[in-house]
Amino acid sequence: MHEKRKYLRFPIHLDAHLQSAVQAQHRRCSVADICRNGVRLCLQGIDMNVGNRQDIVINVPDGGEPVYCSIEILWVTSSYDGGTKKYICGGRFATINNEDRWRLLDIAFDSWKQRMFPTITAPIVFSSG
All domains of the chain, ordered by start, with CATH? Predict the structure, then answer.
């Protein structure tokens, strides 16, 4: 399969919800990974269609304000799990504040770095000889 991505994706789990002008209730989802241009979302029971634009609010663990953005849905896969339809979709950022984009990437990179290179607990000693 030919890889179309230009940018490295970082796996992460961030709680989020979909905003809709027509629905009063926000729908929960999660961000599964992120790159410079977009995100992969996991959702339950929410129909997503390629080409649609979706507003998202992403909760971030840095204690700051949530990130508000919108994505254009580029692909969708679905499956059933215990009678509930689950979706995974990928989207390109249509609107996002650049500071928020880099904040999300910093959070994802730091999370990836901690998983890949756990903190060394023993002190490092350099010899002079």
Answer: 14-111 (2.40.10.220)
